[in-house]
From TrEMBL:
Residues 17-435 form the DUF112 domain. This is Putative tricarboxylic transport membrane protein. It comes from Lentzea albidocapillata. The keyword Transmembrane helix applies. Keywords: Membrane, Transmembrane, Transmembrane helix. The keyword rRNA-binding does not apply. The chain crosses the membrane at residues 20-46, 58-79, 106-132, 144-161, 167-185, 197-220, 308-330, 351-374, 386-419, 426-443, 463-483.
Amino acid sequence: MEQLLDGFATALTPTHLLLAAIGVLLGTAIGVLPGIGPAMAVALLLPVTYGMEPTGAFIMFAGIYYGGMFGGSTTSILLNTPGESAAVVAAFEGNPMARRGRGAQALAAAAIGHFTGGIIGTILIVLLAPFVAKHAVDIGAPDLFAVMVLAFIAVTSVLGASRIRGFASLLIGLTLGLVGLDEMTGQQRLTFGSLHLADGIDIVVVAVALFAVGEALWVAAHLRRKPFEPIPVGRPWLSKADLKRTWKPWLRGPLIGFPFGAIPAGGAEIPTFLSYVTEKRLSKHKDEFGKGAIEGVAGPESTASASAAGTLVTMLTLGLPTTAVAAVMLAAFQQYGIQPGPLLFQRESGLVWALIASLFIGLTLLLVLNLPLAPLWAKLLRIPRPYLYAGILFFASVGAYAVNADIFDLLLMFVIGLLGFGMRRYGLPVLPAIIGVILGPAAEQQMRRSLQLSDGSLTGLVNSPMAIIVYVVIVLILFFPLLKRFLPKPPAAAEPEREKVDA
Protein backbone atom coordinates (compact mmCIF):
# COMPACT_ATOMS: atom_id res chain seq x y z
CA MET A 1 0.00 0.00 0.00
CA GLU A 2 2.90 2.35 0.72
CA GLN A 3 4.32 1.72 -2.75
CA LEU A 4 0.89 2.29 -4.32
CA LEU A 5 0.50 5.59 -2.42
CA ASP A 6 3.95 6.63 -3.64
CA GLY A 7 2.80 5.72 -7.14
CA PHE A 8 -0.25 8.01 -6.76
CA ALA A 9 2.03 10.81 -5.55
CA THR A 10 4.05 10.44 -8.75
CA ALA A 11 1.07 10.02 -11.11
CA LEU A 12 -0.88 12.96 -9.65
CA THR A 13 1.76 15.56 -10.53
CA PRO A 14 0.42 18.14 -13.04
CA THR A 15 2.70 16.92 -15.84
CA HIS A 16 1.70 13.28 -15.45
CA LEU A 17 -2.01 14.17 -15.12
CA LEU A 18 -1.76 16.13 -18.38
CA LEU A 19 -0.05 13.19 -20.10
CA ALA A 20 -2.76 10.80 -18.85
CA ALA A 21 -5.49 13.13 -20.18
CA ILE A 22 -3.71 13.47 -23.54
CA GLY A 23 -3.36 9.68 -23.74
CA VAL A 24 -7.07 9.11 -23.01
CA LEU A 25 -8.19 11.71 -25.58
CA LEU A 26 -5.76 10.49 -28.26
CA GLY A 27 -6.69 6.87 -27.61
CA THR A 28 -10.42 7.60 -27.84
CA ALA A 29 -10.04 9.72 -30.99
CA ILE A 30 -7.84 7.15 -32.76
CA GLY A 31 -9.95 4.23 -31.49
CA VAL A 32 -13.04 5.80 -33.09
CA LEU A 33 -11.44 5.48 -36.54
CA PRO A 34 -12.34 2.05 -37.96
CA GLY A 35 -9.34 -0.25 -38.17
CA ILE A 36 -6.93 1.97 -36.22
CA GLY A 37 -6.90 0.46 -32.74
CA PRO A 38 -4.89 1.19 -29.59
CA ALA A 39 -1.94 -0.96 -30.71
CA MET A 40 -1.41 1.18 -33.80
CA ALA A 41 -1.91 4.35 -31.74
CA VAL A 42 0.81 3.32 -29.26
CA ALA A 43 3.11 2.25 -32.12
CA LEU A 44 2.64 5.59 -33.91
CA LEU A 45 3.32 7.55 -30.73
CA LEU A 46 6.33 5.46 -29.72
CA PRO A 47 8.84 7.70 -31.57
CA VAL A 48 7.25 10.80 -30.00
CA THR A 49 8.24 9.59 -26.53
CA TYR A 50 11.96 9.13 -27.24
CA GLY A 51 12.80 12.33 -25.39
CA MET A 52 10.39 11.72 -22.50
CA GLU A 53 11.26 10.19 -19.17
CA PRO A 54 9.98 6.56 -18.85
CA THR A 55 7.28 7.14 -16.20
CA GLY A 56 5.55 9.87 -18.21
CA ALA A 57 5.73 7.84 -21.42
CA PHE A 58 4.11 4.77 -19.84
CA ILE A 59 1.41 6.84 -18.15
CA MET A 60 0.50 8.21 -21.60
CA PHE A 61 0.59 4.71 -23.11
CA ALA A 62 -1.82 3.41 -20.43
CA GLY A 63 -4.23 6.25 -21.25
CA ILE A 64 -4.01 5.44 -24.97
CA TYR A 65 -4.67 1.75 -24.25
CA TYR A 66 -7.93 2.29 -22.34
CA GLY A 67 -9.00 5.25 -24.50
CA GLY A 68 -8.47 3.20 -27.67
CA MET A 69 -10.59 0.35 -26.31
CA PHE A 70 -13.47 2.73 -25.52
CA GLY A 71 -13.12 4.47 -28.90
CA GLY A 72 -13.32 1.10 -30.66
CA SER A 73 -16.55 0.25 -28.85
CA THR A 74 -18.00 3.69 -29.78
CA THR A 75 -17.83 2.97 -33.53
CA SER A 76 -19.02 -0.61 -32.92
CA ILE A 77 -22.14 0.68 -31.19
CA LEU A 78 -22.97 3.63 -33.44
CA LEU A 79 -21.77 2.50 -36.87
CA ASN A 80 -21.49 -1.31 -36.55
CA THR A 81 -17.78 -0.85 -37.32
CA PRO A 82 -15.36 -2.11 -34.64
CA GLY A 83 -12.26 0.04 -34.17
CA GLU A 84 -10.35 -3.02 -32.90
CA SER A 85 -10.94 -6.73 -32.34
CA ALA A 86 -11.86 -6.45 -28.63
CA ALA A 87 -14.80 -4.22 -29.62
CA VAL A 88 -16.36 -6.71 -32.04
CA VAL A 89 -18.91 -8.01 -29.50
CA ALA A 90 -20.09 -4.48 -28.65
CA ALA A 91 -21.52 -4.19 -32.18
CA PHE A 92 -23.85 -7.13 -31.75
CA GLU A 93 -26.19 -5.54 -29.19
CA GLY A 94 -24.94 -1.94 -29.17
CA ASN A 95 -25.75 -1.24 -32.82
CA PRO A 96 -29.37 -2.48 -32.59
CA MET A 97 -29.73 -0.29 -29.47
CA ALA A 98 -28.47 2.71 -31.45
CA ARG A 99 -30.92 1.97 -34.27
CA ARG A 100 -33.74 1.96 -31.73
CA GLY A 101 -32.74 5.43 -30.51
CA ARG A 102 -30.81 4.17 -27.49
CA GLY A 103 -27.28 4.88 -28.72
CA ALA A 104 -26.53 7.23 -25.82
CA GLN A 105 -27.60 4.57 -23.29
CA ALA A 106 -25.43 1.96 -25.02
CA LEU A 107 -22.42 4.32 -24.92
CA ALA A 108 -23.08 5.13 -21.26
CA ALA A 109 -23.32 1.42 -20.40
CA ALA A 110 -20.05 0.84 -22.29
CA ALA A 111 -18.27 3.76 -20.55
CA ILE A 112 -19.36 2.69 -17.05
CA GLY A 113 -18.55 -0.93 -17.96
CA HIS A 114 -15.02 0.06 -19.00
CA PHE A 115 -14.60 2.04 -15.78
CA THR A 116 -15.94 -0.75 -13.54
CA GLY A 117 -14.01 -3.55 -15.25
CA GLY A 118 -10.82 -1.49 -15.38
CA ILE A 119 -10.98 -0.43 -11.73
CA ILE A 120 -11.68 -3.99 -10.49
CA GLY A 121 -8.98 -5.34 -12.82
CA THR A 122 -6.44 -2.80 -11.58
CA ILE A 123 -7.26 -3.63 -7.94
CA LEU A 124 -6.65 -7.28 -8.84
CA ILE A 125 -3.27 -6.30 -10.35
CA VAL A 126 -2.30 -4.82 -7.00
CA LEU A 127 -3.52 -7.83 -5.01
CA LEU A 128 -2.96 -10.85 -7.24
CA ALA A 129 -0.21 -10.07 -9.77
CA PRO A 130 2.42 -12.52 -8.41
CA PHE A 131 -0.17 -15.26 -7.75
CA VAL A 132 -1.87 -15.03 -11.18
CA ALA A 133 1.45 -14.88 -13.03
CA LYS A 134 2.72 -17.96 -11.19
CA HIS A 135 -0.29 -20.10 -12.11
CA ALA A 136 -0.75 -18.74 -15.63
CA VAL A 137 2.57 -20.30 -16.60
CA ASP A 138 1.21 -23.78 -15.76
CA ILE A 139 -1.58 -23.59 -18.38
CA GLY A 140 -0.43 -25.68 -21.32
CA ALA A 141 -1.27 -26.04 -25.01
CA PRO A 142 -4.11 -28.61 -24.50
CA ASP A 143 -5.85 -26.26 -22.05
CA LEU A 144 -5.57 -23.27 -24.39
CA PHE A 145 -6.86 -25.31 -27.35
CA ALA A 146 -9.84 -26.55 -25.32
CA VAL A 147 -10.74 -23.00 -24.27
CA MET A 148 -10.58 -21.82 -27.90
CA VAL A 149 -12.84 -24.69 -29.02
CA LEU A 150 -15.24 -23.64 -26.24
CA ALA A 151 -15.27 -20.11 -27.65
CA PHE A 152 -16.05 -21.48 -31.14
CA ILE A 153 -18.89 -23.73 -29.96
CA ALA A 154 -20.40 -21.32 -27.45
CA VAL A 155 -20.75 -18.41 -29.86
CA THR A 156 -21.89 -20.39 -32.92
CA SER A 157 -24.53 -22.11 -30.76
CA VAL A 158 -26.22 -18.90 -29.59
CA LEU A 159 -25.98 -16.62 -32.64
CA GLY A 160 -27.99 -16.48 -35.82
CA ALA A 161 -31.23 -18.10 -36.89
CA SER A 162 -29.80 -21.62 -36.76
CA ARG A 163 -26.74 -23.51 -35.58
CA ILE A 164 -25.99 -24.62 -39.15
CA ARG A 165 -25.66 -21.01 -40.27
CA GLY A 166 -23.52 -20.25 -37.21
CA PHE A 167 -21.13 -23.11 -38.05
CA ALA A 168 -21.12 -22.09 -41.73
CA SER A 169 -20.04 -18.59 -40.71
CA LEU A 170 -17.37 -20.06 -38.42
CA LEU A 171 -16.08 -22.19 -41.32
CA ILE A 172 -15.73 -19.06 -43.48
CA GLY A 173 -13.70 -17.39 -40.72
CA LEU A 174 -11.47 -20.43 -40.16
CA THR A 175 -10.80 -20.60 -43.92
CA LEU A 176 -9.77 -16.93 -44.03
CA GLY A 177 -7.57 -17.55 -40.97
CA LEU A 178 -5.72 -20.35 -42.79
CA VAL A 179 -4.52 -18.06 -45.60
CA GLY A 180 -0.74 -17.53 -45.54
CA LEU A 181 2.34 -19.49 -44.53
CA ASP A 182 2.04 -22.46 -42.20
CA GLU A 183 3.90 -21.35 -39.06
CA MET A 184 5.40 -24.79 -38.45
CA THR A 185 6.28 -26.01 -41.95
CA GLY A 186 6.54 -22.77 -43.93
CA GLN A 187 4.23 -24.12 -46.66
CA GLN A 188 1.88 -21.68 -48.42
CA ARG A 189 -1.84 -22.25 -47.88
CA LEU A 190 -4.68 -20.73 -49.95
CA THR A 191 -2.37 -17.99 -51.28
CA PHE A 192 -2.95 -18.90 -54.99
CA GLY A 193 0.69 -18.01 -55.65
CA SER A 194 0.30 -14.41 -54.43
CA LEU A 195 3.14 -13.05 -52.30
CA HIS A 196 0.72 -10.48 -50.85
CA LEU A 197 -1.21 -13.29 -49.14
CA ALA A 198 1.88 -15.08 -47.82
CA ASP A 199 1.73 -13.18 -44.51
CA GLY A 200 -1.97 -13.98 -44.10
CA ILE A 201 -4.94 -11.61 -43.95
CA ASP A 202 -4.75 -9.09 -41.14
CA ILE A 203 -7.63 -9.28 -38.65
CA VAL A 204 -8.15 -5.50 -38.92
CA VAL A 205 -8.78 -5.83 -42.67
CA VAL A 206 -11.24 -8.71 -42.14
CA ALA A 207 -13.13 -7.03 -39.27
CA VAL A 208 -13.43 -3.71 -41.11
CA ALA A 209 -14.47 -5.48 -44.34
CA LEU A 210 -17.12 -7.76 -42.84
CA PHE A 211 -18.60 -5.10 -40.57
CA ALA A 212 -18.04 -1.69 -42.20
CA VAL A 213 -17.96 -2.53 -45.92
CA GLY A 214 -20.56 -5.29 -45.65
CA GLU A 215 -22.89 -2.99 -43.69
CA ALA A 216 -22.37 -0.08 -46.11
CA LEU A 217 -23.18 -2.30 -49.14
CA TRP A 218 -26.22 -3.76 -47.37
CA VAL A 219 -27.55 -0.27 -46.55
CA ALA A 220 -26.83 0.94 -50.11
CA ALA A 221 -28.77 -2.01 -51.53
CA HIS A 222 -31.85 -1.02 -49.52
CA LEU A 223 -31.40 2.77 -49.54
CA ARG A 224 -33.83 3.54 -52.38
CA ARG A 225 -36.54 1.32 -50.95
CA LYS A 226 -36.52 2.99 -47.53
CA PRO A 227 -36.63 6.79 -47.19
CA PHE A 228 -34.07 8.28 -44.81
CA GLU A 229 -35.38 8.81 -41.29
CA PRO A 230 -32.91 10.24 -38.74
CA ILE A 231 -32.41 7.87 -35.82
CA PRO A 232 -33.37 9.61 -32.55
CA VAL A 233 -30.50 10.14 -30.12
CA GLY A 234 -32.52 9.45 -26.99
CA ARG A 235 -31.88 10.37 -23.38
CA PRO A 236 -28.20 10.63 -22.37
CA TRP A 237 -28.54 8.86 -19.01
CA LEU A 238 -29.36 5.34 -17.92
CA SER A 239 -32.77 4.82 -16.32
CA LYS A 240 -33.37 2.83 -13.11
CA ALA A 241 -34.48 -0.14 -15.22
CA ASP A 242 -31.24 0.07 -17.24
CA LEU A 243 -29.12 0.21 -14.08
CA LYS A 244 -31.00 -2.76 -12.64
CA ARG A 245 -30.13 -4.78 -15.76
CA THR A 246 -26.49 -3.66 -16.05
CA TRP A 247 -24.95 -3.66 -12.57
CA LYS A 248 -24.58 -7.44 -12.41
CA PRO A 249 -22.97 -7.74 -15.90
CA TRP A 250 -20.58 -4.92 -14.93
CA LEU A 251 -19.47 -6.91 -11.88
CA ARG A 252 -19.42 -10.29 -13.67
CA GLY A 253 -17.23 -9.01 -16.49
CA PRO A 254 -13.96 -8.80 -14.52
CA LEU A 255 -14.42 -12.38 -13.24
CA ILE A 256 -14.24 -13.58 -16.86
CA GLY A 257 -11.90 -10.96 -18.36
CA PHE A 258 -9.09 -10.70 -15.82
CA PRO A 259 -8.03 -14.40 -15.73
CA PHE A 260 -8.16 -14.66 -19.55
CA GLY A 261 -6.12 -11.48 -19.93
CA ALA A 262 -3.46 -12.92 -17.61
CA ILE A 263 -3.16 -16.21 -19.56
CA PRO A 264 -0.23 -16.16 -22.01
CA ALA A 265 -1.62 -16.19 -25.57
CA GLY A 266 -4.90 -14.82 -24.20
CA GLY A 267 -6.30 -11.36 -24.91
CA ALA A 268 -9.71 -9.71 -24.90
CA GLU A 269 -11.35 -11.61 -27.76
CA ILE A 270 -12.18 -14.93 -26.07
CA PRO A 271 -13.46 -13.48 -22.75
CA THR A 272 -15.69 -10.87 -24.46
CA PHE A 273 -17.32 -13.61 -26.54
CA LEU A 274 -17.78 -15.81 -23.47
CA SER A 275 -19.15 -12.86 -21.47
CA TYR A 276 -21.75 -12.24 -24.18
CA VAL A 277 -22.81 -15.90 -24.12
CA THR A 278 -22.96 -15.83 -20.30
CA GLU A 279 -25.13 -12.72 -20.21
CA LYS A 280 -27.51 -14.22 -22.77
CA ARG A 281 -27.83 -17.39 -20.69
CA LEU A 282 -28.44 -15.50 -17.43
CA SER A 283 -30.62 -12.68 -18.73
CA LYS A 284 -34.37 -12.52 -18.06
CA HIS A 285 -34.72 -10.66 -21.37
CA LYS A 286 -33.44 -13.33 -23.78
CA ASP A 287 -35.93 -12.23 -26.44
CA GLU A 288 -34.17 -8.85 -26.67
CA PHE A 289 -30.79 -10.34 -27.60
CA GLY A 290 -30.03 -9.58 -31.22
CA LYS A 291 -32.44 -6.64 -31.05
CA GLY A 292 -30.54 -4.47 -28.55
CA ALA A 293 -30.15 -5.99 -25.06
CA ILE A 294 -28.18 -3.63 -22.83
CA GLU A 295 -26.63 -6.57 -20.91
CA GLY A 296 -24.93 -7.59 -24.16
CA VAL A 297 -23.05 -4.27 -24.11
CA ALA A 298 -22.39 -3.88 -20.37
CA GLY A 299 -20.91 -7.35 -19.72
CA PRO A 300 -18.47 -7.66 -22.65
CA GLU A 301 -17.23 -4.06 -22.28
CA SER A 302 -16.49 -4.58 -18.57
CA THR A 303 -14.82 -7.86 -19.51
CA ALA A 304 -12.64 -6.21 -22.18
CA SER A 305 -11.39 -3.56 -19.75
CA ALA A 306 -10.61 -6.12 -17.04
CA SER A 307 -8.86 -8.28 -19.64
CA ALA A 308 -6.61 -5.32 -20.49
CA ALA A 309 -5.62 -5.16 -16.81
CA GLY A 310 -4.91 -8.92 -16.78
CA THR A 311 -2.74 -8.47 -19.88
CA LEU A 312 -0.57 -5.99 -17.98
CA VAL A 313 -0.08 -8.54 -15.18
CA THR A 314 1.52 -11.05 -17.56
CA MET A 315 3.52 -8.37 -19.33
CA LEU A 316 4.92 -6.79 -16.16
CA THR A 317 5.57 -9.95 -14.11
CA LEU A 318 6.60 -12.42 -16.85
CA GLY A 319 7.60 -10.18 -19.77
CA LEU A 320 5.08 -12.05 -21.96
CA PRO A 321 2.97 -9.82 -24.24
CA THR A 322 -0.46 -11.43 -24.76
CA THR A 323 -1.88 -8.70 -27.03
CA ALA A 324 -0.55 -6.39 -29.75
CA VAL A 325 -0.61 -3.40 -27.37
CA ALA A 326 1.35 -5.31 -24.74
CA ALA A 327 3.91 -6.24 -27.40
CA VAL A 328 4.36 -2.58 -28.36
CA MET A 329 4.62 -1.58 -24.68
CA LEU A 330 7.22 -4.32 -24.17
CA ALA A 331 9.23 -2.79 -27.02
CA ALA A 332 8.86 0.58 -25.28
CA PHE A 333 10.24 -0.88 -22.02
CA GLN A 334 13.22 -2.29 -23.90
CA GLN A 335 13.70 1.09 -25.60
CA TYR A 336 14.39 2.52 -22.13
CA GLY A 337 16.67 -0.40 -21.21
CA ILE A 338 14.07 -1.91 -18.83
CA GLN A 339 13.30 -5.64 -18.96
CA PRO A 340 9.86 -6.65 -17.61
CA GLY A 341 9.89 -9.85 -15.58
CA PRO A 342 9.86 -11.20 -12.02
CA LEU A 343 12.52 -8.69 -10.88
CA LEU A 344 10.80 -5.62 -12.37
CA PHE A 345 8.87 -4.87 -9.15
CA GLN A 346 12.19 -4.77 -7.27
CA ARG A 347 14.41 -2.95 -9.75
CA GLU A 348 11.88 -0.41 -11.09
CA SER A 349 9.29 -0.30 -8.32
CA GLY A 350 8.75 3.46 -8.64
CA LEU A 351 7.94 3.19 -12.35
CA VAL A 352 5.67 0.13 -11.95
CA TRP A 353 3.58 1.56 -9.11
CA ALA A 354 3.27 4.95 -10.84
CA LEU A 355 2.02 3.08 -13.93
CA ILE A 356 -0.51 1.10 -11.85
CA ALA A 357 -1.69 4.28 -10.10
CA SER A 358 -2.06 6.00 -13.47
CA LEU A 359 -4.45 3.23 -14.55
CA PHE A 360 -6.88 4.32 -11.80
CA ILE A 361 -6.47 7.96 -12.87
CA GLY A 362 -6.77 7.23 -16.61
CA LEU A 363 -9.97 5.21 -16.12
CA THR A 364 -11.52 8.02 -14.05
CA LEU A 365 -10.57 10.56 -16.73
CA LEU A 366 -12.04 8.26 -19.38
CA LEU A 367 -15.38 8.14 -17.56
CA VAL A 368 -15.45 11.86 -16.76
CA LEU A 369 -14.58 12.86 -20.33
CA ASN A 370 -16.70 10.35 -22.26
CA LEU A 371 -19.90 9.99 -20.23
CA PRO A 372 -21.02 13.58 -20.95
CA LEU A 373 -19.94 13.14 -24.59
CA ALA A 374 -22.21 10.10 -25.12
CA PRO A 375 -25.14 12.13 -26.56
CA LEU A 376 -22.68 14.04 -28.77
CA TRP A 377 -21.22 10.82 -30.18
CA ALA A 378 -24.75 9.49 -30.67
CA LYS A 379 -25.60 12.48 -32.90
CA LEU A 380 -23.43 10.84 -35.57
CA LEU A 381 -26.55 8.77 -36.27
CA ARG A 382 -28.43 11.87 -37.47
CA ILE A 383 -26.11 12.29 -40.45
CA PRO A 384 -27.95 11.22 -43.65
CA ARG A 385 -26.99 7.65 -44.48
CA PRO A 386 -25.35 8.31 -47.89
CA TYR A 387 -22.91 10.77 -46.26
CA LEU A 388 -22.47 8.63 -43.14
CA TYR A 389 -21.62 5.43 -45.00
CA ALA A 390 -19.44 7.27 -47.50
CA GLY A 391 -17.47 8.54 -44.49
CA ILE A 392 -17.36 5.04 -43.00
CA LEU A 393 -15.98 3.61 -46.28
CA PHE A 394 -13.39 6.39 -46.40
CA PHE A 395 -12.13 5.80 -42.86
CA ALA A 396 -12.35 2.03 -43.33
CA SER A 397 -10.14 2.37 -46.40
CA VAL A 398 -7.68 4.55 -44.46
CA GLY A 399 -7.60 2.03 -41.62
CA ALA A 400 -7.10 -0.96 -43.94
CA TYR A 401 -4.36 0.80 -45.91
CA ALA A 402 -2.59 1.94 -42.72
CA VAL A 403 -2.11 -1.67 -41.55
CA ASN A 404 0.62 -2.49 -44.08
CA ALA A 405 0.60 0.57 -46.37
CA ASP A 406 -0.30 -1.82 -49.20
CA ILE A 407 -2.90 -1.12 -51.90
CA PHE A 408 -3.57 -4.89 -52.05
CA ASP A 409 -5.15 -4.70 -48.58
CA LEU A 410 -7.70 -2.22 -49.94
CA LEU A 411 -8.69 -4.58 -52.76
CA LEU A 412 -8.84 -7.47 -50.30
CA MET A 413 -11.03 -5.42 -47.95
CA PHE A 414 -13.63 -4.80 -50.66
CA VAL A 415 -13.61 -8.45 -51.79
CA ILE A 416 -14.21 -9.62 -48.19
CA GLY A 417 -16.77 -6.79 -47.88
CA LEU A 418 -18.74 -8.41 -50.72
CA LEU A 419 -18.54 -11.67 -48.75
CA GLY A 420 -19.96 -9.79 -45.73
CA PHE A 421 -22.80 -8.48 -47.89
CA GLY A 422 -23.57 -12.05 -49.02
CA MET A 423 -23.56 -13.27 -45.42
CA ARG A 424 -26.15 -10.63 -44.50
CA ARG A 425 -28.22 -11.55 -47.55
CA TYR A 426 -28.43 -15.22 -46.55
CA GLY A 427 -28.75 -14.71 -42.78
CA LEU A 428 -25.27 -15.86 -41.71
CA PRO A 429 -24.13 -14.15 -38.49
CA VAL A 430 -20.89 -12.19 -38.92
CA LEU A 431 -19.53 -12.74 -35.41
CA PRO A 432 -18.54 -16.46 -35.72
CA ALA A 433 -16.55 -15.60 -38.86
CA ILE A 434 -14.60 -12.95 -36.95
CA ILE A 435 -13.94 -15.45 -34.14
CA GLY A 436 -12.68 -17.97 -36.67
CA VAL A 437 -10.22 -15.47 -38.17
CA ILE A 438 -8.95 -14.28 -34.77
CA LEU A 439 -8.71 -17.59 -32.94
CA GLY A 440 -8.37 -20.08 -35.81
CA PRO A 441 -4.59 -19.77 -36.34
CA ALA A 442 -3.91 -19.74 -32.58
CA ALA A 443 -6.15 -22.78 -32.02
CA GLU A 444 -4.38 -24.67 -34.81
CA GLN A 445 -0.98 -23.84 -33.31
CA GLN A 446 -2.00 -25.01 -29.81
CA MET A 447 -3.56 -28.21 -31.22
CA ARG A 448 -0.43 -29.09 -33.15
CA ARG A 449 1.78 -28.39 -30.14
CA SER A 450 -0.42 -30.70 -28.04
CA LEU A 451 -0.19 -33.48 -30.64
CA GLN A 452 3.59 -33.03 -30.94
CA LEU A 453 3.99 -33.44 -27.19
CA SER A 454 1.97 -36.69 -27.31
CA ASP A 455 3.68 -38.08 -30.46
CA GLY A 456 0.50 -37.66 -32.50
CA SER A 457 -1.84 -39.34 -30.00
CA LEU A 458 -5.27 -37.69 -29.63
CA THR A 459 -5.04 -38.27 -25.87
CA GLY A 460 -2.61 -35.34 -25.84
CA LEU A 461 -5.61 -33.03 -26.25
CA VAL A 462 -7.25 -34.25 -23.02
CA ASN A 463 -4.30 -34.94 -20.74
CA SER A 464 -5.04 -32.25 -18.13
CA PRO A 465 -7.93 -31.72 -15.67
CA MET A 466 -8.68 -28.24 -17.04
CA ALA A 467 -8.98 -29.52 -20.63
CA ILE A 468 -11.31 -32.34 -19.56
CA ILE A 469 -13.58 -29.92 -17.67
CA VAL A 470 -13.75 -27.59 -20.69
CA TYR A 471 -14.64 -30.46 -23.06
CA VAL A 472 -17.42 -31.59 -20.69
CA VAL A 473 -18.84 -28.05 -20.85
CA ILE A 474 -18.62 -28.16 -24.68
CA VAL A 475 -20.56 -31.46 -24.79
CA LEU A 476 -23.25 -29.99 -22.52
CA ILE A 477 -23.61 -26.93 -24.78
CA LEU A 478 -23.88 -29.10 -27.91
CA PHE A 479 -26.34 -31.66 -26.56
CA PHE A 480 -28.41 -29.59 -24.14
CA PRO A 481 -31.08 -28.74 -26.78
CA LEU A 482 -31.50 -32.48 -27.47
CA LEU A 483 -31.69 -33.35 -23.77
CA LYS A 484 -34.16 -30.52 -23.24
CA ARG A 485 -36.69 -32.30 -25.49
CA PHE A 486 -36.74 -35.33 -23.19
CA LEU A 487 -36.97 -33.36 -19.95
CA PRO A 488 -40.49 -33.08 -18.46
CA LYS A 489 -42.08 -29.68 -19.00
CA PRO A 490 -42.88 -27.69 -15.87
CA PRO A 491 -46.60 -27.77 -14.94
CA ALA A 492 -46.76 -23.96 -14.99
CA ALA A 493 -46.27 -24.00 -18.75
CA ALA A 494 -49.35 -26.19 -19.24
CA GLU A 495 -51.76 -23.93 -17.30
CA PRO A 496 -52.00 -21.12 -19.88
CA GLU A 497 -52.75 -23.72 -22.59
CA ARG A 498 -55.63 -25.17 -20.52
CA GLU A 499 -57.03 -21.69 -19.89
CA LYS A 500 -56.76 -20.93 -23.61
CA VAL A 501 -58.72 -24.09 -24.50
CA ASP A 502 -61.40 -23.30 -21.92
CA ALA A 503 -61.78 -19.80 -23.31
